[in-house]
Amino acid sequence: MIDWNAIGAEAAELLSGYLQIKSINPPGDERAAAEYLDGVLRARGLTATRYASAPNRVNLVARLRGDGSKPPILLYHHMDVVAADPARWSCDPFGGEVRDGYVWGRGAIDMKGMGIMQALALDLLQHHQPQRTRDIILLAAADEEKGSVYGVQWMLAHHWPELAAEYVWDEGSFGLQDFFGPMPVFAISVAEKKDLWLRLVAHGEPGHSGMPHAANAADILLRALERVKQLDARYVLHPVVQRMFAQIGAALPYPKSFLLQHLDNPLVFRLAQPTLTADPTIAAMLKDTLSITVLRAGGKENVIPDRAEATLDLRLLPDHEPETVMATLRQLIADPRVTIEIIQAPAAAAVSDVNSEFYRTLTAVLKRLTPGCVTAPMLTPGTTDSCFFRRMGVNSYGLFPAIIDPGELARFHGIDERISIKNLRLGTRIFYEVLSAMTR
User: Is 316 left (phi over 0), alpha (psi -120 to 50) or beta?
Assistant: First the structure.
């Protein structure tokens, strides 16, 4: 018998140490995090290999061997974290403090907590299921927070044979409590939006700021941005989102159940839109979005700039094409003095199979361990490293196996990020039981 309370306590202790490592990106340095995780694995008899993709940038791979009669499963998490302002936290963001039933620190949710669950699940699997049909690969990656150039993209380009798997288990969603009703909803990401990063550059004429003129590049850019914001697209029901709402709706009372299960009816969709789009996360699943993220112009207080630029972060629905969006932007801007440069263009998006053995096994385990929960596929409004695996033809699924409420979700990339010991225990058990079923 596995003592899951003891596993939860062990996970909290290990995560505390992991969170104390400042693997902040930017600037990006995963060496100490990889060293720590390597030690956790080696202490449990698991061999890990580190791959340096650039100075200070490290990826780590461990493999628990099976008999090879079935293809591998890859467990993924990233070691880098975003910055945290200590002045705004109630504790040290990199203290790894354990109190009030939680482990506190930057990366507890995104996503070192998941990495500890994965390491412990591998250890449990090697002891409790010595005969396995599949290899289980653990990949701890660098650079996810800045585009994965030195992480998954580099690993797939240089070490694909070491990572080739039938399924990938990544981040992308959670078990959501009090989002759709009192029951937890495990929304399993099977697709995500495409990220298109553009730079608008306005070209004008320099001059003295005491003598304003109509060719100020900053003014040209501001007018272009006002027109660009009109792109805020119409709402569209993607098939994955439709299926998600239909499965959630089946567990809700009337009339919510009727509305959510009939969103494919245009009239019902229009009626439900005000309620659905009141939540920013749901709204982002229903349309292309545009955010102005960086502005640059001028270098001196009394000089009119001849160049101004803005960075746009567009997230497109999987079946929407960048070329079409860019053509619309050019029509909206309608000014030859403003050019559009592509910073990052997305590749074709894929949707993972919701009828696969992995998806069916995961949903069965979730329902057994959390009675009364709802499981549903999800379109992630942001992007994760799953997009790179899907481009390689791998079915990838995003779920941080924990149950969190809206307040907990707000701590993601926010203030006082934390994860409960109860969730560490639950998540480790979900990992173990899914892998156990998949390797028999």
Answer: beta
Query: Please, what's the largest Cα pairwise distance for the chain?
Result: 81
* Rounded Cα distance, 196 and 315, in Å: 6
What does the alpha-carbon distance between residue 63 and residue 435 come to, in Å, rounded to a whole number? 13
The pTM of the full predicted model, rounded to 2 decimals, is 0.93
Over the stretch 138-188, which tens digit does the pLDDT of each residue have? Answer: 999 999 999 899 999 999 999 999 999 999 999 999 999 998 888 999 999
Element (H, E) at 261: helix 256-261
Residue 86: is the preceding peptide bond cis (ω within 30°)?
no
Tokens of 327: 């053509």
> Is the torsion defined by CA of 244, 248, 249, 250 positive or negative?
positive
Question: Number of H helices and number of E strands within the chain?
Answer: 14, 17
Burial of 128 (0-12, 13-18, 19+ CB in 10 A): exposed
**Cα angle: 419, vertex 82, 314; to 5 degrees:** 110
Q: Among 246, 255, 288, which Cα is nearest to 376's? A: 246
Lookup result for tokens 């340096």: 52
CB 421 within 8 A of CB 402: no
Give the whole-number percent of the chain exceeding pLDDT 90. Answer: 94
Domains and CATH numbers, the chain: 4-190+350-438 (3.40.630.10), 194-344 (3.30.70.360)
| One-letter amino acid for residue 191 of the chain | A
pLDDT confidence tier of residue 381, bands split at 50, 70 and 90: very high
What is the pLDDT at residue 327? 95
From the list 169, 172, 139, the residue with the least C-alpha distance to 155 is 139
Angle at 293 between CA 292 and CA 297, to 5 degrees: 90
Mean pLDDT, residues 42-54 taken together = 98
Q: How far apart are CA 243 and CA 261, in angstroms?
A: 8
CA gap 247, 330 in Å, rounded:
40
Which residues, at least 6 apart from 1, have a Cβ–Cβ distance to it below 8 Å?
none
End-to-end CA distance of the chain: 18
One-letter amino acid identity for 34? A
DSSP H stretches of helix in 142-238: 152-163, 217-228
What is the model's pLDDT at position 386? Answer: 97
Give CA–CA dist 152/158, Å, rounded.
10
